[in-house]
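Input (structure):
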């Protein structure tokens, strides 16, 4: 469910294997998220900031990410960061944490 939000996937890839990794990531999305439109999957070069690839109002945007650097940048520009954490959640972590995307409904 998208709960009325526009859903985009931003995924970073290393420069040295950008094309191959981009294809791999797109194939993963098509297999695991078949209702996701491929034009809503944005491949971000590793050295770039995800924030630079968003055209909407960042203050109404949520980033779910497992990499804290991306989350800190997102928060710095006024977006809502959510840490995707596999395993146990940390107490007193600076951002909301989820283990599954279905948990977003308790945060938004």
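Output (sequence):
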């Amino acid at each position: 469910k998208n709960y009325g939000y526009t859903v985009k996937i931003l995924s970073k890839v290393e420069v040295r294997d950008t094309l191959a990794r981009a294809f791999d990531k797109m194939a993963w999305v098509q297999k695991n998220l078949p209702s996701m439109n491929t034009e809503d999957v944005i491949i971000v070069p590793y050295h770039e900031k995800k924030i630079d690839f968003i055209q909407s109002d960042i203050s109404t945007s949520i980033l779910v990410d497992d990499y804290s650097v991306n989350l800190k940048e997102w928060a710095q520009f006024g977006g809502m960061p959510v840490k995707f954490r596999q395993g146990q959640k940390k107490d007193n972590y600076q951002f909301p944490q989820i283990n599954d995307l279905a948990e977003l409904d308790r945060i938004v």
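Notes: The chain has a mean pLDDT of 84. The chain has two helices and five strands.
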